[in-house]
Amino acid sequence: MSSYIPGQPVTAVVQKIEIQKLRQGDRLILGFSIGGGIDQDPSQNPYSEDKSDKGIYVTRVAPGGPADVAGLRVGDKIMQVNGWDMTMIKHYHALKKLTKSNEVVVRLLVTRKSLEQVVRGAMGFHKEEH
Amino acid sequence: MFGDSTLKRQTGSCACPRWSGAGSTLGSFRRNRRGSALRSGRKASKIDSLRTKVELLRLPLGLSTKSLSQCKPQLLGPRDKGSGAGAPRARALTATDMDNDSTYSGYSYKSSHSRSSRKHRERRDRHRSSKSRDGSSRDKSSLQPPGEPLLDAESTRGEERDDNWGETTTVVTGTSVDSVSQEDLTRVTKELEDSTPLHCRRYLGLTLGAILGLFAFVTPLAFLALPQLLWRDSLDPCGTPCEGLYISLAFKLLILLISTWALFLRPPRASFPRFFVYRCLLLALVFLFVASYWLFYGVRVLEPRETDYRGIVGYAASLVDALLFIQYLALVLLEVRHLRAAFCLKVVRSSDGVSRFYNVGHLSIQRAAAWVLDHYYSDFPVHNPAVLNLPKSILSKKASAFKIYSLGEENSTGNSTGQSRAMIAAAARRRDNSHNEYYYEEAEMERRVRKRKARLVVAVEEAFTHIKRHQDEPTPSSPKHPREVMDPREAAQAIFAPMARAMQKYLRATRQQSYHTMESIINHLQFCITHNMTPKAFLERYLALGPTLQYLDHGRGRQWTLVSEDAVTSALRQGLVFSLKRPDFSLVVSVTPLPFLALGEEFVDPKSHKFVMKLQSETSV
Asked: Are B562 and B491 contacting, i.e. CB atoms less than 8 angstroms apart?
């Protein structure tokens, strides 16, 4: 995951994940838990590399739930939800953006360390090739 | 015919009007305005008195003068202190005056007195008031801040108001210690009041108490002295025990004296309309004690010439003990009992709505009234009649009347009511824009006041820079710039000139000009300069209306009328409302009990205060 340099745009390798919400009673659930936000304490985050990163992270994925099926993993950092930015957002607002009752599908852009490694590896492979 | 009746009374004895034949005069002075002739029949007077009773009940607490002026009961206030003979004025008393007289007397007597005594009382009060109208104003004028003379001239509009103006000043009278609420005794007291001149009335209670106290003080000494004087030879010799008792007696008497001086010999600050129950109780108790002791002494000691002197000394000592205990009782009843708060009084001034809440203990209505007035003078901003009403320009816009034409209606009976109703309906339907004007007028006035205040502040600041305190320098060397040394008065006059105009304009804008004369401003300026005050401190007196006490002229008593539906010696209780009247406004006091506080307990272990950092809150989606 990219480190954040203040003043510079954040760049990251992201993966698109589309989750279909599951109706359970009168609620639409996604099947994962999030943590983080600009109003939370970032040093408690076990998944972030940079302990001052106040982004939204996935802390738990219910096995067999819609998020699991769609490919979300524990420790992912969510960058966007349906176009809404999640890197500078309060925890409560992030929740609101994810649980809108009139949306059945949420399209997330998530990033994880392994993605970076894969891409770097691929680039390096190409470099080596050349 | 009213004039006739009073003249008749005047030529009779001033002191005691005859009780007989009261019916006729009662009818006359009560119904004079209606023009009814002097009724001499018993039946007519009975009807009148019944009518009176009805009107008594109908009277509100003097709040709606309109209804009173309609029904015109000739109720009178309580005893007044008529000082000397004023000319009896044959004028109609209107009911508006009755507001000012405390109508409470009618109410408070209603319960305990019969009709007849009330009639007599009222007739006599009437007669007395007509006598005393001039005198009372001489004795106690009710003029307060310097603006008041203006106000009283305004308020005495028409002769009817003026007529009873004196009566308002006569209400707060001295205590009548010996009046008990029974008909005969009340009558006797009234006669007594008629005969004693004004000033003695107030001190009657005091002198009675003083005499009784002195008598009680002298009694133990008399008990000791009399056997010695009368049958000294046959007394048993009594050595050390007696001397011990002498010493204790002496010290107890000394303590009694000192505490009497501390407790009771203070100049009273208020005189109540009715007697002070506790004080009378205590005086009665003292009298009872002393009398019974004397009785016993007379029968058992003086008669048989008792020889056991030690017993006599012990007896005297026990009397002193009893007196000390009575004094303890007095302390508790008069001073301590009302200290614990039990009621909350809401005091609202009727003219401009300024209100305060006070906590008081268990008091009678008249004592509570005195308490409230004490606090009124230092808490309430002074009554400024100039800022009371909306300016006429705003309200009078409504007054354009509609003309009503009746189109060929035959019966004229329903016309007037129909007309007025139509007018009211039309006025209600018309779009009312006076609130707009009020709003803009208010905003404009506020702006004006602020501008003038700014000018005033600047002017005063500048003026204060012109003078400074002259330090006495030991070396008065350079007579090059001989500054003339002024005393505070001259300094004040010197710097008053530049700020005078700004001050005057500001006072006019806030309508305080009647409270501050030029003389008073210069005095205040001198005062501030002497005490090294800053311009801001000088101005605090003028920027806000201060409490009434600030504008009070000392040395004159203040007249207040207590209006109450209950007897004024009854204790405060929930839901009671009474009011204190002055000629131009009144204070309405309502009583609510303080809530009972049920305090619970919760124990918090000091070790239970633990904190954790707020972790990443994890929410499942």
From this structure: no
DSSP string, B248-273: HHHHHHHHHHHHHHHHT-S--S---S
CA distance B289 to B322: 8
pLDDT for the residue numbered B132:
41
Alpha-carbon gap, residue A83 to A106, rounded angstroms: 10
The dihedral built from the CA positions of residue B236, B242, B245 and B251, taken in this order, carries a sign that is positive
Burial class (CB in 10 A: 0-12, 13-18, 19+), B542: buried
- For residue A32, give Cα distances in angstroms to A68, B429, B498, B584: 8, 66, 80, 77
Task: Dig out the tokens for A123 from the structure.
Answer: 């680039």
CA B123 to chain centre: 25
Answer yes or no: do B621 and A95 touch at CB < 8 A.
yes
A-B contacts (CB, under 8 Å): 39
Tell me which chain B residue has its CA closest to the CA of residue A59: B618
Residues B196 and B199: their CA atoms lie apart, in Å, by 8
Report chain A residues whose CB lies below 8 A from the CB of B614.
40-41
Half-sphere exposure of B357 (CA within 13 A, CB side): 7
Structure tokens at B263: 């407790």
The structure tokens listed for A28 are: 């639409």
Q: Does A108 touch chain B (CB under 8 A)?
A: no
> Looking at the partner chain, which of A31, A40, A95 has a beta carbon nearest the beta carbon of B616?
A40
Q: Which residues pair with A16 in a beta bridge?
A: A109
ipTM of the complex: 0.75
Q: What's residue B355's pLDDT?
A: 92
Q: Which chain B residue has its CA at the smallest distance from A58's CA?
A: B618
Return the DSSP state at B11.
H
The residue with tokens 């009277």 is B59
| Tokens found for residue B250 | 């002496």
Tokens 């006598």 sit on residue:
B131
- Alpha-carbon distance B429 to B34, whole Å? 40
Token couple for B465: 């820079």
Burial class (CB in 10 A: 0-12, 13-18, 19+), B506: buried
Say which residue the tokens 């109720």 belong to: B75
Test A40 with B613 for CB contact under 8 angstroms.
no
Contact B619 A40 (CB under 8 A): no
- Residue range B247-279, pLDDT digits in tens: 999 999 999 999 999 988 887 788 888 888 888
Contact A29 B616 (CB under 8 A): no
A118 to chain B nearest CA, in Å?
Answer: 29
